[in-house]
Structure formats: C-alpha cells, structure tokens
Amino acid sequence: MKVALITGVTGQDGAYLAEFLLKKGYFVHGIKRRSSLFNTDRIDHLYQDQHENHVNFKLHYGDLTDSTNLIRIIQETQPDEIYNLAAMSHVQVSFEMPEYTANADGIGTLRLLEAVRILGLEKKTKIYQASTSELYGLVQAVPQSETTPFYPRSPYAVAKMYAYWITVNYREAYNMFACNGILFNHESPLRGETFVTRKITRGACKIALGLQNCLYLGNLSAQRDWGHAKDYIEAMWLILQQEEAEDFVIATGVTTTVRDFVKMSFAELGIDLEFSGKDENEKGVIVGLDVELISSLGLNPEKLFLGTTVVKVDPKYFRPTEVDLLLGDPTKSKTKLGWQPKYDLQALVEDMMKSDLHLMKKDEYLKRGNFKTLNYFE
Ligand code: NDP
Ligand code: GDR
To answer: What interface predicted TM-score (ipTM) does this complex get?
Structure first.
C-alpha cells in the first residue's frame, strides 16, 4: 500500500486529492492546523473512526511554520509521496500578511524538503510542490509555459517563487524526486468563499433569492485561465508517477475576464446582465429575464426587475499590484503526462452554480425560520 502525506488537506485541493488517493488504494495522512472551530468541513465525508480496523485515512495536527512537527510527522508516516498544498493562498491577503506568507509559503516548503533530507528519505519520498501561475505575474509572454520568465507581483507570489526554486535546488543538489506543478487558477464548489469565482457564484444565487442586493467586486477586467480542481488534482498525482522529476504547467489554455465569469454565472439563473461605465464606476445591470428558467429553478421571477444594478465595483478589492492576464500553455502536461481536463469553463460554472444554489436555498430556508444563517466575510 502506497503512503501519501498531504499538507493543506483541509483546503479545496487537499480534500479532492485525499478522496482521489483513497480511491486509488493509498493510505492517506493529512496535516491539519489546530483551530478553535472545526475546520474539516471539506473532508468530513472521508472521516474514519481510528478505533475501527482497516483505517486508511489519518489526520495529524501540524503547521508549516513548525519544523520539529514536520520532521516528527514525516518520521512517523514514512510517506512515499508528499503533496505540499498548505499555504496562505489568498493573494490579496498576502499584502496584509507578507511576513507570515513568506514564512508559511516560502520557508515552509524548505522545512518540508529539509525534513525529508534530515530523515534520510531522499530516495524514498517523492515531493509535489504546489506552485502557481502567479509566478508569471507581470506579463512577459502569453501563453505562459514552463520556460516563460517569472515576474511575481505579490508577497504570495514572491514566497511561492522561493518555494519553486528551493524545490528545483533540492532536486538538483540531492537528487530528490521533487517537482513543481505550476497550476493555473482552479475552482470548484469547494473553493474558498473569498476567491472571486466562488464569491460570484454565491453572490449571484443570493441575489436571485433576495438574500443580497448587490455584489461588490474589484478588477472586472482581470483575465484568468480557470479550470476545475477535480481535473487539476489528477495532474498532481500524474506528475509524481513519472520516471523523472520535472516541472509542469497545468492549465486549460483558455482565458476569460472576471466580468464574463459574472455574466456566465447570472446566465445560469436566467438573468442577463449588461456592463457599463469604467473602472470603479462600472456596474452590471439586469437587461433580460428568462422567466421560464427562473421558475424552473424554484426561484421567484417577480422578485427580479429589469434595470436593477446587481454588480458594483468597490476599489477596496483592487490590489496594490495586479496580475492582469494569465493564459497557460498545457502542451507539455498533455503530451508527457497524458493529462486531459474533463471540465471546460461552462461546465465549471454550471457545477459551481448548481452547488451554490442548493446551499443558498438552504440559507434562505433557515432565514425564513429565524435560524442563524451562513455568514462569511468577504
Ligand atoms: P486553500 O486555501 O483552499 O487551502 C490551503 C490549505 O493550507 C488549507 O488546508 C489550510 O488550512 C492550509 N494551511 C494554510 N496555512 C498553513 C500552515 N501554516 N500550516 C499548515 N497548513 C496551512 O488552497 P487551495 O486548495 O486552493 O490550494 C492548494 C495549494 O495550491 C496552495 O498552496 C495554493 O497556494 C496553491 N495553488 C492554488 C491554486 C488554485 O487556483 N486553487 C492555483 C495554484 C496554486 P486551513 O483549512 O486551516 O486554513
Ligand atoms: P488569484 O484568485 O488572485 O488569481 O489567486 P482570486 O480569485 O482571488 O482573484 C482572481 C482575479 O479576480 C480579481 N477580482 C477579485 N478577487 C477577489 N478575490 N475578490 C474580488 O472581489 C475580486 N474582484 C476582482 C482579482 O483582482 C484577480 O485579478 C488564486 C489563488 O488560488 C492562488 O493561491 C493561486 O496561486 C492563483 O489563483 C493561481
């Protein structure tokens, strides 16, 4: 039985990857942080009572800022594969917490690599490092491939740049099987609520249900290459199954503006939006309603009105330095890994909208009954 250790197992990718590896017959160990509230929502369905026989999923308390803890967990678990997914992963928040981000996302990766080396596991343990398209930052060339120069534009991206190079260095210096997956944005119904796609899908559903009047966003012109997390975690695994350790770009090869993602999301609810104005004065207004579709979704078309402004720009979401355009070239991963995504953008939006409509209807039901509803900060 192969043994995998996932850092960041409670996050979007960690949850999908744990499920994927368990299905493949792995024993999966996950590192979770101690928190005053439960933080295992995304993996609760995988929970196993540790007193039962045949346990193959186990959680350990840990943190990437604590080397002794990492050394102990790796010594105890003796993993064949480590997936380093833990990170302070929010680009805008990294401007508020640059030092912590450098510590967790940059030095954290070093701690992990060093732990494997200290324990003499260089020949046994393969390491996947969650690198990112944010490394490309200020556009040098498009589409962006494994050979495109980096120009990071946030404390997050700079920390991830250190992690990228220290992974390459440990591979070259100590002959370790350590690889970077340079993953472009990937989303899902499990995406954190403050990333733009999830904020949009939740916001659109809340507006359609009358739970929210307006969705406030930042830069609507930013372009991202969005894929589905379910497809991307499969690529992570494929990267560690190769003969040789190498770095790979994982992307769809299609880029879309935030504005168009908003339109596609509202369209799923039968709401047609038009945008007008510029920069912080831009707004999205309802210009069409598909009453039949709206009703078929269990929504009340009489609560929605043509001419209503439902999207506005709030400059507080602008970043001090922005990444304007990301568009990946997945040629290498398609040819060498045989990786082929199953979801295109339309299928991704449909999946997220379906899930959020269900969740927000639950929220509305609770609200009607005067029960406490979901409350996420943006
Ligand atoms: P999430 O933010 O959903 O999950 C991050 C995980 O890391 C959570 O489990 C979080 O724990 C954990 N974590 C945060 N800080 C620490 C720490 N100091 N020690 C231990 N664990 C910590 O991210 P995603 O699942 O979306 O992304 C996974 C990885 O891939 C991240 O490294 C991210 O930077 C990178 N990435 C993501 C992309 C994307 O589009 N999703 C694209 C490219 C790279 P908790 O639940 O307690 O907060
Ligand atoms: P990103 O994702 O920064 O690309 O990092 P995010 O969804 O936060 O932003 C994407 C783009 O949308 C613009 N934007 C907004 N963003 C947020 N969060 N909230 C808003 O209201 C809003 N309005 C517009 C942003 O300016 C940006 O241009 C994600 C993370 O998962 C990283 O960890 C990962 O490395 C990269 O993707 C690839």
So the answer is: 0.99
